[in-house]
Every structure is written in structure tokens, then in C-alpha cells.
Design brief:
24% helix, alpha/beta, Arc Repressor Mutant, FAD/NAD(P)-binding domain, 17 strands, six-stranded mixed beta sheet, 3 domains, three-stranded antiparallel beta sheet, 370 residues
């Protein structure tokens, strides 16, 4: 793996080593005639809690070394409340801290994009890329691939609690589906997960390990906080980075392209700090306007997530298995052979439902935590 210098030049500079950035950098560097720099503001993804599937429950709830832990602006329709927005920080991005549920968008969503004029984004257009990226351990059909880098698995066994959840859905009149990413994307069923041999299969693990790690034309640079994209004569020529706010600034130049893959929040932030965004807002912040684009940093929408908690009279929940000294035993068991409750994400079942019969596609999602 190439080492970056204080000022270096690459053909491609990819900003953000998250779900998209890891895949993009790996694919670009397959061409040995080009050089690629992958820049990540956070650290490497070596922590045990990142690798252990049940560890996400410790990382997601609060800000930390691997979680930016953003808060939204006050929401007028929630009586001024600010909502918590976890985001991955480090190699793999949010794929290194999320719940590891592998769910594609509904086919109708992709087809709607195509109808809006996004040529090449219909479901039939994107399906081959899903299949190409996937190493599915259970399904091999028109919807799933088995030769890709990203491991997709189904739980080896599920607890009585999940089976009761599925039976309850069926008793309520909802269909059961074997594959949420296949022909039927509605009903109750078991989730597929990005877990391989009891360990998280993040985008970093899928794309930056193995062959990619040994490529001399790929430089993976962690703790590289991108401050802005450098633009000359309307063209991106590189980025300015620093390890933190008080650290010396460095320049990474790109002879061909700068690709910003910093996520839903930080991609527009970087663009705005670079002078691309709503002109009035940039001027107010003292940022020279290079391209006035009123939609940058606007129109973000996200769904609400509401948790309902119920008592369980039987000792089948993860809490009952990890109370007191049992918690240490669960961790020890995982360290020895990656077995036991710690190898599960504890969100093994869920549902996609329509709240009104006249709807054509599901509009609500259920996650079953144990």
C-alpha cells in the first residue's frame, strides 16, 4: 500500500472511506496504470466492538471515536426537538457501526427515479450491480450473486422470540417472505445481514482487504480531515486536509478527478466550504462563492425511528443472556471461537408493510430487537 507524502499527487482522490468510498477506491485501483488516494477523517477499523456484531449496540447510541454523533436542527413538527443522527467515522464509515441489515431499495423506488429522468437508475439497471457486489451465502438466483466481495448471510439459527414475531405477523394476516431482496419485498421475514463467520462484513472489510491492501497504486490515508476541495478555473485539482483543527494543513492533488463520498451530511458541507452552495449562505459564512448552487445542503429527508419496549417473561432476550457476569462470559466465548450471542446483530427479523390497502408499496418498516 502506497504511503502519502506531505504533498502528494494522485490521478484520483476519493474523499471518505465509507460504504461508497471503499468500493469506489477499490474498483478504480484495479487499473494498475492509475493512482488512487482514499482519504478518511476517522481512524482504522480495528476495534473489537466494530468487528463483533453485537458491538454496534455500544457504538451507535452515542458520539465517540467511531461515531460522529450528529444532532439535527430543531424540528418544527417535533415541538423543536433535535434528533440524534449517528454516522460512522473511520474506515468503512457507517457500514462499520450500523446494524448490518442488508436491505436494498424497493424496486418501485428505482423505477421512479428512472421515470424522473435518471437514465440507468431503474431497477433492472441497478440489479446487475447488486448481484456483482454480493457474496450471498444462501441465495443464488436472478436477484443474488455469489462471487462478489460483500458477504451477505442469513442467521444460522434464530431465537424463539423471532419465531414468535413471525408467527404473530402471519396470524395478523400479513404475508411471510423468504427474501426481502428478491421477488417479494413485503411482509414479515428474517433479515439478511453483512456478517461473515461471526464478524461484521463492512465495506472496508469487503473492498479494502485482500488484494486491494497490497496494491501499490492505492494509498489509504486515515485521520485525513478534508477541509475543502481546491478549485482552479472551474476544475477540482485536489483537496486541503489536516489531521485536526490545529494540525498543519497538507495538499493532496488530483490530476484527473476528486470524488466526494463523505456521506449525506459531510458531502454538502465539504462542497459548501469549497465555495459550492447557496450563495447568500456562503457569503454570510465568509466563504468565497465559486459556484452558486441553491440546493446544496438543502432538502435532506430521513424517516422517523420510534422504539417500543415490551417486557418478555421468558429468558430469551439478549438482555437476559448478558446480565451481570454473563456479559463477560459472552465476550469470552466470542473471543475464543466467535460463537454465542455476540455473533448476532440482535435484529434478525422485521417487516415491510403498507399502512393503507390502496398503497402500491410498503411505507413502514419494523425491526425486531431481542
Amino acid at each position: 500500500m502506497a504511503q502519502a507524502k506531505d504533498e502528494a499527487r494522485f490521478d484520483f482522490v476519493v474523499v471518505g472511506a465509507g460504504s461508497a468510498g471503499c468500493a469506489l477506491a477499490a474498483r478504480l485501483s484495479e487499473d494498475p496504470s492509475v493512482t488512487v488516494a482514499l482519504l478518511e477523517a476517522g481512524p482504522e477499523d480495528k476495534a473489537l466492538l466494530l468487528k463483533m456484531p453485537s458491538g454496534s449496540g455500544n457504538i451507535l447510541p452515542e458520539k465517540g471515536p467511531h461515531n460522529w454523533g450528529f444532532s439535527s436542527a430543531p424540528q418544527s413538527h417535533l415541538m423543536g426537538r433535535e434528533t440524534y443522527q449517528p454516522r460512522g467515522r473511520g474506515l468503512g464509515g457507517s457500514s462499520s457501526i450500523n446494524g448490518m441489515i442488508y436491505i436494498r431499495g424497493h424496486a418501485r423506488d428505482f423505477d421512479h427515479w428512472r421515470q424522473l429522468g435518471l437514465t440507468g437508475w431503474g431497477y433492472r439497471d441497478v440489479l446487475p450491480y447488486f448481484r456483482r457486489s454480493e457474496r450471498n451465502e444462501r441465495f443464488s438466483d436472478a436477484y443474488h450473486g455469489t462471487g462478489g466481495p460483500l458477504t451477505v448471510s442469513t442467521p444460522d439459527e434464530t431465537s424463539e422470540l423471532y419465531q414468535a414475531f413471525l408467527r404473530a405477523g402471519e396470524a395478523a394476516g400479513y404475508p411471510l417472505t423468504e427474501d426481502f431482496n428478491g421477488r417479494s419485498q413485503e411482509g414479515f421475514g428474517l433479515f439478511q445481514t453483512t456478517i461473515r463467520d461471526g464478524a461484521r462484513a463492512s465495506s472496508s472489510a469487503a473492498y479494502l482487504r485482500g488484494e486491494a491492501a497490497s496494491r501499490r497504486n492505492l494509498a489509504i490515508i486515515t485521520r485525513a480531515h478534508v477541509l475543502r476541495v481546491l478549485i482552479e478555473e472551474g476544475r477540482a485539482i485536489g483537496v486541503e486536509i489536516a489531521a485536526d483543527r490545529n494540525a498543519p494543513r497538507r495538499i493532496i492533488r488530483a490530476s484527473r478527478e476528486v470524488v466526494v463520498c463523505a456521506g449525506a451530511f459531510q458531502s454538502p458541507q465539504i462542497l459548501m466550504l469549497s465555495g459550492i452552495g447557496p450563495g447568500a449562505a456562503l457569503q454570510k459564512a465568509g466563504v468565497p462563492v465559486l459556484s452558486s448552487s441553491p440546493d446544496v445542503g438543502r432538502h435532506l429527508q430521513d424517516h422517523l425511528d420510534l422504539g417500543l419496549v415490551w417486557d418478555c417473561p421468558l429468558p430469551v432476550t439478549v438482555y437476559s443472556q448478558t446480565r451481570g457476569l454473563r456479559r463477560a462470559l459472552v465476550g469470552l466465548r466470542y473471543l475464543i471461537d466467535r460463537s454465542g450471542p455476540a455473533r448476532s446483530n440482535h435484529i434478525e427479523a422485521g417487516a415491510f408493510l403498507r399502512t393503507r390497502p390502496e398503497l402500491e408499496v410498503p411505507d413502514i418498516q419494523l425491526h425486531m430487537f431481542d
